[in-house]
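Reviewer 2 asked us to include a model.

Predict the structure of this chain.
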Amino acid sequence: MGIMTDFDDSYRTNGATLICGVDEAGRGPLAGPVVAAAVLFAPGVQIEGINDSKKISEKKREYLFPMIIKYATAYSVSVQPIEVIEKKNILGASLFAMEQAVGALSVKPHVILLDGNKVFREHETIIPVVKGDAKSFSIAAASILAKVTRDRIMDEYDALYPQYHWKKNKGYPTREHIRAILEHGACPYHRPSFLKNISNWEQGELFK
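Predicted model (structure tokens):
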């Protein structure tokens, strides 16, 4: 963890003390929203166990979620629904969610670290970090906020449409999920643009 906080600290130069990490969850699923989170911490704050949300268990993410909120100087979460994904495409919707999350922060960050290689706006203080959720403490924290928020939403949707097993697959294209779509058809929470080739998927690599 010390290495991750050191990464963020390397941007605390010339009075730039407010370092914001931003990440998203939900670019790959066939259903549900895309969620982005932005979070910043005061210098010196450390939370044991913070890491890329994909590398830690659901139980640990749920444990860390309130810890991040408690110790963050500011945080924000943006949920963008199917309509935005269909209008802007998933990359556009993800970047829009990131921008909305940053814009909703109660304080204005000096430097914004975005996970990935794209930015929502070209600016010298907005910095893309490839695999940032494994490098930056604040990006990793944002990844946990985004992932937990989205998983909870998918759990709620699962209660409405239990045939898709979203509580287990969170909307990702598992064999079970795709077979359920082929059997029951899509529902309003599915992303139409992601399902264009689904009639051919049963014969595809996923089912070999």
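The chain has two domains: 2-158, 160-207. The chain is about 40% helix and 15% strand. We have added this to the supplementary material.
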